[in-house]
Amino acid sequence: MFIFGTRKISAVFPVKRTAFALFASAFSAATFAQADQTPPASVTVQTSDASLSAPPSIGAQLSSQEKPSRAAELFAPVTKANTPKIYTKPVASGPTEMDLRQLWNELKINNPQLSSLRESYLSAKATVPQIAAPANPQVGLVWSGMPVGSPLALGTAGSNPNVSNNNAISIAQPFQFPGKRSLAANIADTNAEALLAQSEATYLQLGAQLSSLYYNALAAQKQLQVLKESVVRLEMIKNVAKARYANNAAAYVEYLNAQVAQSAAEADQFNVDRQLQVALNNINTLVGRHSREKLILRGDVRKALTGVPTLVELEDYAESSHPSLKSSALQLDAARKGVDLAKKAYLPDFQVIGSSYTPRGPFSANNGALYYQFELDLIIPLYFFTKEKYGVEQAQRNQASAEAGNISNRQQVVLAVNTAYAAYEQAKVQTQFLKDRQVPQADAAYKVGLIQYSNNGQGFNDLLTAQTQLRNLEVQLALAEANLLQAQAVLLVSAGKEPF
Questions:
Q1: How many CB atoms lie within 10 A of CB 274?
Q2: How confident is the model at residue 222 (pLDDT cuts 50, 70, 90)?
Q3: Are 99 and 50 in contact (CB under 8 A)?
Q4: What ranges make up the beta strands (E) of 303-370?
């Protein structure tokens, strides 16, 4: 708020009018010479990462993603030495400089949610060899004859020599119909790979959230830079008002208004600095670090604004390589195999039993003659195939559900790409408009207002208004650049790739 008044206090700043004329002319010349040589404001953090400088072609982007499985990279077996922790580093580990690519790597390794998905995938893969393994054999011992007078010889058991008291040792091995066990193991392996694809989709979603936080932090740093430059400009205005008032060429209220505007800009710095700290805390938490760890972000907005593929290319890439679509396709494949397995339930299973008989007890010194027996059992489905019929129906319903889910996921992914591309184009136009037209116009208005006020003392309120307008537009430009980069990251993640 500006303070208006007409009272002058001539004894506060005793400076001659001639001194003011020399000071004003020298000040304006030095100020605008410096303003003409000063480059436009840019993000305060820079990077030396050469990988962001030249975007690859869409063909290279598509071919680079065609890899078999990322299980070895993303889901290495967890040992005692690298067991995931909520906070994998101590609180006082010192400042760390990271760019967006390094933050994504930290997210991949240390995020607890991704660690949980990794363990779930490894658990699912561990069930495959269990299902594929043959059934355990059964070993039996039969002692049908009891010695006379033994506690277990009930009645006249063992006293009649005309009754055979054969004893036996048997081994039984059950077998499923050929193809059942291998198909069940194949279904389990397909479901595990679908779980891996789901974890990759979650990784991309968390990465998009991380990218938004990263660019918000860069925008806050840019706002701090803009506010510091605004404080410097207001200091210049305050010095001019002070000199003019000392020569009785301006009201003292103009000096006070410039001081109030400068204090407001300094107060805004405190708010933006707090927003920056909150963003850094959120980034630390997301990548598995302690929220209070020191973190320094490195990045260059101009290098990150690389060429984006066309909408058609992004749609084609999403339909062929998006992890969500891979997961739904694998689930559909597992559902189709489940129908085949359910139909195999009509086929019988087997059991082979081998037995060895002796006419005496198994622990006798002389067991006498041995007799061998081989038995083949057939386990057939009975009761009018009720269980098998409804098992096939259940598997067919699961297949229909997976087919519908796959179509729905494909539609949702393509729609998300279209929506993200529209948001990206809108943010791009808005950023370009602010950068090419509004900010240069506001900068010119501020310079004209400062020259006019320095020369003839007119238009002080117009000068403050022009300075405020310039500051607001520069802040809007910083936010627009952050929104553009967020939209770019969301667009690439919607298509199923990392925003690098």
A1: 11
A2: confident
A3: no
A4: 349-358
% of the chain exceeding 90 in pLDDT:
30
Q: State residue 165's pLDDT score.
A: 61
Two structure tokens written together for 441:
């116009």
Residue-wise pLDDT for 319-331, tens only, equals 988 999 999 999 9
> Chain-centre distance of CA 334, in angstroms?
27
Residue in this structure with the two tokens 């993200």, named with its chain if needed: 420
Q: In what order do the strands lie in the sheet with 138-143?
A: 138-143, 167-175, 349-358, 371-379
How far is the CA of 74 from the CAs of 66, 116, 277, in angstroms? 16, 12, 30
The count of C-alpha atoms lying within 13 angstroms of the C-alpha of 43, restricted to the half-sphere facing its C-beta, is 25
pLDDT tens readout for residues 47-83: 333 333 333 433 344 344 444 444 444 344 434 444 4
Closest CA to 237 of 445, 453, 26, 30: 453
- Closest by alpha carbon to 245, among 233, 229, 259, 232? 259
> Does the pTM of the predicted model rise above 0.85?
no
* Alpha carbon distance 348, 450 (integer Å): 95
CA distance 173 to 320: 46
Q: How far is CA 420 from the centre of its chain?
A: 17
Strands 167-175 and 138-143: antiparallel
